[in-house]
Specification:
Layout lengths: L1 H15 L7 H12 L8 H16 L6 E2 L1 H17 L7 H12 L4 E7 L4 H9 L2 H7 L5 E8 L5 E8 L1
Parallel strand pairs: 1-3
Antiparallel strand pairs: 2-4, 3-4
Pfam family, one: CAP
Protein name: CAP domain-containing protein
Keywords: Signal
Length: 164
């Protein structure tokens, strides 16, 4: 049943996005994730995003989600990939979900992305106003991580992974 849920999520993610088949750069970043120390320090804006998402979840009667350093590595890798491609995308989501399933014993994985927002409240509002992103934020999850990374022009990319 657990694997079935992951397969359904992968199928939905594939149908909802146009994904590239070129994965070399992100695969290399994933190799780096697998070999890095699991204790991490997150930035102030990353903590703010987690805080506002948790405040929102609690306000609608859901549990707060806990930070996962494993998911953080994959969120960072995906931001670096999107920056290298110059576009926001859910490319290779199936690989992120599979890696989290293996490394964090995740049963179900989802993600929200954003680009060109400047603070946690703005990205939260954008996600709340999108039915798909809102559904992810309100999902049955216990863990999360968010990476916020600036490109060379200062444009911020956001990847938030959720899993249970």
């Amino acid at each position: 049943m657990v694997r079935f849920n992951i397969l359904i999520l992968i199928a939905l993610a594939t149908l909802m996005t146009s994904c590239s088949t070129s994965t070399t750069e992100e695969d290399d970043l994933y190799k780096a994730v697998a070999t890095t120390n699991k204790e991490v320090t997150i930035s102030a804006i990353e903590q703010e995003v987690i805080d506002v998402v948790n405040d929102y979840r609690v306000s609608v009667g859901l549990n707060a989600v806990e930070f996962s350093s494993v998911a953080y590595g994959y969120a960072n890798a995906h931001n670096e990939y999107m920056i290298s491609e110059g576009i926001i995308s859910h490319d290779n989501f199936d690989k992120r979900a599979s890696k989290l399933s293996e490394e964090a014993n995740a049963d179900f994985v989802s993600e929200n992305l954003g680009m060109d927002y400047t603070n946690a409240n703005d990205i939260l509002e954008a996600w709340k106003n999108s039915p798909t992103h809102k559904k992810v934020m309100e999902g049955n999850f216990n863990y999360t991580a968010v990476s916020v990374t600036a490109d060379e022009n200062g444009v911020l990319y956001f990847t938030q992974l959720f899993f249970q």
